[in-house]
Every structure is written in structure tokens, then in C-alpha cells.
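Dear H.,

Thanks for agreeing to be a second pair of eyes. The structure we're designing against is below in C-alpha cell form, covering all 319 positions.
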């Protein structure tokens, strides 16, 4: 068999690519054994925070550190150990607000384990100043609000009752100056459209002070009752007199009224006479022996779309 000549090998594209790849690898290997100076992002952490104290404002999320070391070590940190490059702020015995000039605290930088002797920290590039604001830790139980939930029902349907949450309140913990200004906990914005039956969803809570205020729950279960709109009639509601002076009595003609209500079909069918209060306010100009025509006031439950009272006016007999 005829042996392949070196010339034929050189003419093959695959051989050329392999040789070039090997050459590049060897060059990179040799080059990364040299010493380099570079900047790598790390994180900022707080140590030895006094009991009952907390940060009142968030710290910068990252720190940029200028490092010197062998190329392979720096590359290894950048690719795999960047999260272990940290600037540790020591708050031991500190209970007040202060500023840190990072250039004076290079020794607060900790390198990933195993690189302490191979890498040197030259300087902190960013940030140049860190403001630390401390406050007392305060906890409060706040209700969950549906202000960020937009919802609509299909024509002929209605939401009955309030939007229900489980849990309906959340404990928030953080700096007093922030926690004491909060009155409710909001969900993230959410939209539900054209609904014609009950529905529920797991919704994330919105934390505008993430990093300094903690919630006892990260999300809540929302439930909404949707019903077909219906009508119902409730009769024999007794009329009551209000603010009748001593030694006066009143009679009504008629003494009962009827109300026609519209609302969620299941909801209004469960309404009874005791859910309604019909009253007539005594007029100070009324005298004994007189008969007067008065307007009946009606108090009715929530979640009713409309109501119509009959009769609206009745005769009042003063005794």
C-alpha cells in the first residue's frame, strides 16, 4: 500500500484546523501562566449586626475589586468562584449611621477559599463610598390589598363579596422608619377579564423595599366569587321609628314594606327579612294627633347592585 506523504496531509483541511487549534491552546495555556491585573465583580455582605438592629437602606448589590494573580487563577474565579469574592462590612458594636471609604478597607475583601496566597487585592474600584444606615427592627401585621388586581365579569354576571386572600394578612419585619409608613401589602399587578364563574390564583406579593423589609409570606391565594345576576323580593319588612321623643308614640300605615333587590343570584336568594332595616326619622315639627307622610329609609346588605322599596312613603300617626 502506498504511504501517505506529509504533503498530502498538509493539503487536508481537517489537519490544518487541528494543528491550529492545538497551537491556540498551547499559546493560551502558556499565556495564562503569566501574571495579570484585572477587575472582577463580587458581593457585599454585612457581619456582626447588633441584635435588634437592621439596615434602613439597601447597600450596593456588587463590589468591583482590582486583583493581581496568575491568569488561570483569575479566570477560575471569574468563571466559577465569583460569588465567593466578597466585601464584608463589619458592624461590630456599631449602632449608628456611618460612611465607609472603601479604599481604606481593602482588607475587608475576602477571596474564595484556596486563592488567598495566589491572588492579591490591589484596590476597590466600585463603590468608592458605602453609606450604612441602621435602625431598630420593627414587625407589623398588615392586611393584603387587592388594589393591584384588575378584574371584570362577563355581561350578566357580577363579583359577589370582597376579593378573598389566604392568608389575608402578612407580618412585615424591617427598619422602623420604613415599616411604620406601610399600611397594607400589595400583590404584583394582575388582570382577570370576562369571568363568568368563581376563580382563584396564587399571586406573588409586591415588596417595594426588597432587601430591607421581609414578608412572612411570598405569595397569597386569591379567591373571587362570581355569580349570575338575579332578582329577588323580600316582603313583610317592619318599619321602625327613630328618635321618637319621650311620651310620644307613632303608628305607621302600612307598617311593613317590600324590597326588590338585584345582585348575585345565589347571594340574594339567601337574604331574609332581618337583613334589612326600614326606618322613619321622627320630625321635631310633628305634634300629637297629627298624621304625616314620611319617606322610608332602607338599610340593606353589601353586594346588592340595586334595590327598590315599595311603598317608598308611608303615613305616620303621632300619638
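And this is the sequence the design step returned. I haven't edited it by hand at all.
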Amino acid at each position: 500500500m502506498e504511504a501517505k506523504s506529509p504533503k498530502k496531509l498538509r493539503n487536508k483541511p481537517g489537519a490544518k484546523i487541528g494543528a491550529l487549534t492545538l497551537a491556540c491552546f498551547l499559546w493560551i495555556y502558556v499565556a495564562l501562566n503569566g501574571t495579570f491585573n484585572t477587575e472582577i465583580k463580587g458581593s457585599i455582605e454585612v457581619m456582626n449586626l447588633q441584635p435588634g438592629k437592621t439596615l434602613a437602606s439597601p447597600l450596593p448589590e456588587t463590589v468591583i475589586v482590582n486583583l493581581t494573580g496568575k491568569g488561570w487563577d483569575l479566570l477560575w474565579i471569574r468563571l466559577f468562584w465569583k460569588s465567593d469574592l466578597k466585601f464584608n462590612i463589619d458592624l461590630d458594636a456599631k449602632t449608628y449611621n456611618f460612611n465607609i471609604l472603601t479604599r481604606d478597607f481593602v482588607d475587608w475583601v475576602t477571596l474564595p477559599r484556596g486563592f488567598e496566597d495566589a491572588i492579591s487585592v490591589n484596590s476597590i474600584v466600585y463603590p468608592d463610598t458605602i453609606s450604612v444606615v441602621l435602625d431598630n427592627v420593627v414587625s407589623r401585621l398588615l392586611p393584603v390589598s387587592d388594589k393591584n388586581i384588575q378584574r371584570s365579569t362577563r355581561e350578566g354576571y357580577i363579583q359577589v363579596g370582597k376579593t378573598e386572600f389566604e392568608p389575608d394578612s402578612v407580618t412585615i419585619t424591617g427598619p422602623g422608619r420604613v415599616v411604620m409608613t406601610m399600611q397594607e401589602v400589595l400583590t404584583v399587578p394582575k388582570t382577570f377579564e370576562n369571568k363568568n364563574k368563581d376563580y382563584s390564583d396564587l399571586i406573588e406579593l409586591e415588596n417595594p423595599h426588597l432587601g430591607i423589609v421581609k414578608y412572612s409570606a411570598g405569595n397569597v391565594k386569591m379567591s373571587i366569587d362570581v355569580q349570575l345576576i338575579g332578582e329577588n323580593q323580600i316582603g313583610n319588612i317592619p318599619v321602625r321609628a327613630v328618635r321618637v321623643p319621650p311620651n310620644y308614640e307613632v303608628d305607621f300605615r302600612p307598617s311593613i314594606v317590600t324590597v326588590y333587590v338585584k345582585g348575585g343570584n345565589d347571594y340574594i336568594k339567601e337574604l331574609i327579612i332581618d337583613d334589612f332595616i326600614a326606618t322613619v326619622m321622627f320630625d321635631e315639627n310633628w305634634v300629637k294627633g297629627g298624621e304625616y307622610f314620611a319617606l322610608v329609609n332602607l338599610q340593606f346588605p353589601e353586594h346588592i347592585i340595586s334595590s327598590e322599596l315599595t311603598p317608598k312613603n308611608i303615613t305616620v300617626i303621632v300619638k
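Two observations from my side: DSSP finds five helices and 24 strands in the chain. Residues 13-32 form the longest helix (20 residues).

Warmly,
E.
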